[in-house]
Amino acid sequence: MKLKKLLGTALIASAALTMAAPEGNACSRVVYLGDNNDIILVGRTLDWRTPIPTNIYVYPQGMKKQSMPSGPMLKWTSRYGSVLAVGYDGGVTEGMNEAGLVMNGLFCKGSVYKEAVGPDDNTPVMSLAVLVSYFLDNFTTVDEAEAWLKANEFNIFGKTFDGGTVSLLHWALTDRTGNTLLLEYDGGDLRLFKGRDLQVLTNDPQHEAMEAINNYWKGVNGVNMLPGTVRSADRYVRASFFIHHVPTNFEYPEAFAALNSIMGTVSVPYGYEIEGEPNVSSTQWTSFADLTGGKYYFRFANNQGAFYIDLGRLRLNPGAPVLKLDTSAPGRLEFFGDVNSHLKKSEPFTPMW
Questions:
Q1: Is the dihedral of CA 205, 210, 214, 215 positive or negative?
Q2: Integer Cα distance of 82 and 283 in angstroms
Q3: pLDDT tens track for 49-93
Q4: Helix (H/G/I), strand (E/B), else coil: 326
Q5: DSSP state, 322?
Q6: Which runs of consecutive H residues, i.e. helices, occur in the chain?
Q7: Which of 144, 171, 236, 315 has its CA 20 to 30 A from that of 108?
Q8: Phi-psi category of 60—alpha, beta or left, where left has phi over 0 and alpha has psi -120 to 50?
Q9: Which domains does the chain have, with CATH numbers?
Q10: Structure pTM?
C-alpha cells in the first residue's frame, strides 16, 4: 500500500511540475565519467520537427576569425584544431577540439540574451553561428573558459531558422578532467554553473529549477519509477538516474555501450509527433565525443550505424586545409566507422550572421 500511495503521489507531482515548466525543443546531453578520468564521453541527441541538414567540418589551428561581419566584434586566431557539427552549413551546433574540450548548444526557451542597448554600445557582438567555435578555438579547459567569461562581456546576435524559429540556447562545456561548465542567460544576465556533477543537460526549465525537479524524483527513487514522457524534465530525470547507476570502472567498449543505452532512453522515436506540439519531435541525430581518445562519433537516425572522425590522425597545424564531410552527398547512409578518408578539402562554411 505504501508503494502504491507513493507512486500515485509521484505521478501527480510529476504532472504538475511538467505543466509548470515551459516546453522546450527536445535535446539531451549526458556525460560519462570513468574512474580516474580514464574515459570521459559526452553523448548528445538533437531532436527537431524536420531534418536539420548537418555537415561535419574539421578546422585547423591558425585560422583568423571574427564574431560578426561588421560593427563591434571579437577577432581571434584559432589556437586549436576542432571538429564541428554545422547546421544548415551556416552555424556551429557543437564540436570538440584537439585538447579534448567539447561544447554543445541545446534549446532553452527561457533564455533572454544580453543584447546591444543602442547604437553607441561598443560591447563586442557574438553571432550564435560562431559562438561554439570561439570557445573551442581558444580554450583547453573549463576553468580557462570560465575565467574569460568572468573577465569579458559580449552581446548575442542570432538569426532565426526553419521558418522563423528563434535560436534560444544554453550551452555546456566539458573538458578532459570531466569538469563541466553550464552557460545560461536569464533576463540578459549570463549565469555560470560549474562542477563534475553537472552530467546532464536537456532544455527548459533552466538549471536550478530543473535540479529542484530532479531532487524530488531522487526521493521517489528511480528503481521504483521514472517519468516516461519525451518532455525535457522527464528526460533529465531519466538520464540523471541512469548515468549515476551504471558502473564507472567499465573498459571503453562497455562505457560507450552504457552511454549509448542511456541516450536511447532519452531519444524520441523516429517519426513520433505530438499533435499541436511540433517542437516535441523525433531525434534527428546523436553524437558522442570521446574527450580522452580524440574521436567524434555521429549517427543520423536513418543511418544503420555510427561513423566517427579521429582527430589524432589528421593534420591540424597552421596551414592545414579545412576538411568537410558532406552528409548530403550520395552514399551518406553508408557512412560507417572511421570516415577520415571521406573528408574532403573545403572552403570554410559561411556563417549565418
A1: negative
A2: 25
A3: 888 899 999 999 999 999 999 999 999 999 999 999 999 999 999
A4: coil
A5: P
A6: 2-20, 131-138, 142-151, 207-220, 232-243, 252-265
A7: 144
A8: beta
A9: 24-206+270-345 (3.60.60.10)
A10: 0.91
